[in-house]
Amino acid sequence: MSESPTLTLRHEHELVLMVVEAMEHEVAAIERDDRVDAGRVADMVDFTRTFTDGCHHAKEERVLFPALEQRGPAAAGAVSVMLAEHDAGREAVRAIDGALPRVETDAAARRTVAEHLGLYAQLLRLHINKENNVLFPLADRLLGDADMQRLAAEFERIEEEETGAGVHERYHALAHALRDGPAER
Ligand SMILES: [Fe+2]
Question: 59 alpha carbon to ligand 1 midpoint, in Å?
Fold first, then answer.
């Protein structure tokens, strides 16, 4: 086996946090200039829906969380909190996406985008901390080698079948581009 499934998820968290950092910079820029860089925010929404939800959260929700619940009933509470936080994140992204077409002409839409980018960023930082420091160590304790091998195989299948070849690389590059993108404007 190459790397452990929880290590794969930790590496993906690093990419998600690059985009979270870009979101925080965008919030500061919107508050400073009362202008939204709609192209960059659309890229953030795309990253979040395709990579964070389509790939990363799919691995957690469909593979890791059920395995955890199966091995340790005590994990059920933590898993349900993680699921609720994934949903809260999706709701924030829906609000951003819904307001985005009106940001040129509507100050309330600009505020909605800034507010929900900020909410999403704050939520994801706390959420990722919990997964990295509580949930993944729990998974490392509860799941045996055979579980881990099955998880790794199912992660690969999700990457190939659900998100498609090359998608991972493309979004890896997008996360770097967003983080390193125009800090000044
Ligand atoms: Fe995660």
Answer: 9
Q: Which residues are within 5 Å of ligand 1 (an ion), measured at CB?
A: 131
* Residue range 124-178, pLDDT digits in tens: 999 999 999 999 999 999 999 999 999 999 999 998 887 777 888 899 999 999 9
pLDDT tens digits, 64-104: 999 999 998 888 999 999 999 999 999 999 999 999 999 99
Alpha helices (runs of H) in the chain, residue ranges in sequence order: 5-33, 38-47, 58-59, 65-71, 76-99, 107-130, 136-142, 145-157, 167-180
The half-sphere exposure of 14 on its side-chain side, counting CA atoms within 13 A, is 8
CATH classification of 5-180 is 2.40.30.10, yes or no? no
97 CA to centre of own chain:
16
Residue 102 Cα, ligand 1 centroid: separation in angstroms?
Answer: 31
pLDDT digits (tens, 9 = 90+) for 27-58: 999 999 999 999 999 999 999 999 999 999 99
> CB count, 10 Å around CB of 1?
10
- Per-domain residue ranges of the chain: 5-180
